[in-house]
Amino acid sequence: MAHRFSIREISRQAGVSSATVDRVIHARPGVRPGTIGQVKQAIADLEAQSTQLELSGRRFMIDVVVDAPARFHMAARRALEAELPLLRPAVFRARFHMRERWGKGSLVRELDDVSRRGSHGVLLKAPDTPEVAAAVQRLTQAGIPVITFVTDLPRSPRLAYVGMDNRAAGATAAYLMHSWLAGRQGSVAVTLSNGVFRGEEEREAGFRSTMRSLGARRAVHELPPSDGHDGAAYELMRAALADYPDLAGLYSVGGGNPGLARAWRESGHMPKVFIGHDLNPENALLLADGTLNVVLHHNLQDDMHAACRALMHFHGALPGAWTPAPTPIDVLTPYNMP
Question: What sequence ranges are listed for the domain HTH lacI-type (predicted)?
Answer without folding.
Answer: 5-46
